[in-house]
Structures are given as C-alpha cells and as structure tokens.
Amino acid sequence: MTNLQESVSAVAQAVYGRPTTSASIPRDIRDATALSASATYPSSFGVAMYGPPIDADQYDLFGELPGRLHTVLDEAVNKVLDIVDLSEGASSSNDLLTEQLAPLGPRALKHISALTAGLTDANVGARVTWRAHEGSVRRSNWTLPGVQRVRQLCEESEFTEAERITVTGWLGTASSFHGKVEIRTDNGATIRANTDEELTGRLDLYFNKRVSAEVKVTRVVFAGGRERRLYSVLNIRKLQDDET
User: Fold this and answer.
1) Average of pLDDT values for 151-161?
2) How far is CA 4 from each of CA 1, 34, 113, rounded to the nearest angstrom?
3) 138 forms bridges with which residues in the sheet?
4) 50 vs 38, 86, 117, 172, CA distance in Å?
5) What whole-number distance in Å separates Cα of residue 239 and Cα of residue 244?
6) Long-range contacts for 124-133 (Cβ within 8 Å, ≥24 apart)?
7) Is residue 177 scored above 70 in pLDDT?
8) Rounded Cα distance, 88 and 150, in Å
9) Contact indicator for 185, 169 with CB cutoff of 8 Å
C-alpha cells in the first residue's frame, strides 16, 4: 500500500508539476492523491481503496475537460495503468514502456521499482479495477512477467546530472494546468518541456511569442541503451523582433 501510494503521488507530481529527485511533493498534490483503504477481501489478497472527495476549490488545480471532471488522482492512476498494460504481452515493445517511464523522473521510477520489487518478491501479480470520479471504469491485469519487466527497466535506468542550455524559438503550446510547454526552436527542433512551478502561472504571457528560455536537460538511459532527454524550463523571456 505504501509503495503504491508513493508511486501514485510521484507520478502525479511529474504530470502536474515537474519530475523531482528528492524535494518534497507539494501538499496539494499529496492531498489530492491520498488513497484510503475501505475494506479488504476475506482472502487478505485484495483491498478496496478510494481517493479524497473533490470540492469546488480544487477546480483550479485539476482543470475541467469537456464532459467530465479531470482529477490529478485519476490521471496519475491512469499513467500507472498505462505502464501496467504496456508491460503485458511478449510482443509489447520496451521502447513504448520507456517512453512512458522516462518523463516520470527518478523519484517516480524509484517508487515504481519498489512496488514491482514487492510484488516480485511475493511472486504475485495484480488485478486492478479503477473507477474514475466521473464514473468511467478501467481494468488492468498485471501478470508476474509484466511486473518483472517494469522492475528491470526501472532498476537499470540511469539519470545523468542535468545541464543547462539556452534555446530561442516560438512557444506554440502552453498548459498552465499541467505545467507543459512546446517550443519550436530556431534550428527547427521541437522541445516539449515541463515548467518551473513559479513560471507555470505566467505561461499565457508567452503563448505564440518568440522567446528565449533557460532549459534544464536531463538524459536518461534505459537497459539496452535506449536514451531519452527530459527538458524543464527554468526561466523564459519574450524576445524583441530585432533579437536573435
């Protein structure tokens, strides 16, 4: 239960903020992803859990999508279940798994690794049914081979020390709910990045503008040598027409 809780909270922080290594997860994220056990099955191999109630004050944090309330807990659980589903089946590519795992950062991978280690050591898988706040139901079955596959990828991943670079280009996508931006750089590349917490609330100032951004780049290498770069914008400013 503890490893599951920590995994969900760390994934939520990566989705709604910035992937972190050791800094505290904000209280609003922890409160929004708190899981409580309401009952255990007679066999003691199952448990019913539920999340916190949603009130009007949380709309600003979570946002609203057409037709349903979009909560950080639902999003985090769905991310974990995406990993579960991708790990199943001999034909499933590790490339797809690493694409899901890498952006979650070292803290989330550490807790997912602990979760999978506990299941592996107990020689069991898991069957999960999750009912979202708006009523949709998702079911995933995590077999022991799938658990072991995720554990190996998490344990053998390596995050390098971050470096800082400066990029210039057009900021074409910005989400203040998720703290994400997309910058088309002057050399034609597209950078998809998280934003620093202080910057997230001001993203509307830079939307569809030419900008200069200070970006932190972390390289993650998975088993087999597959590499992914993670970007986080630390500072940003609008450029004047005559600036290059």
Assistant:
1) 87
2) 5, 11, 10
3) 130
4) 7, 24, 24, 38
5) 8
6) 124/45, 126/84, 128/81, 128/84, 130/74, 130/77, 130/78, 130/81, 132/68, 132/71, 132/74, 133/51, 133/54, 133/68, 133/69, 133/71, 133/73, 133/74
7) no
8) 10
9) yes
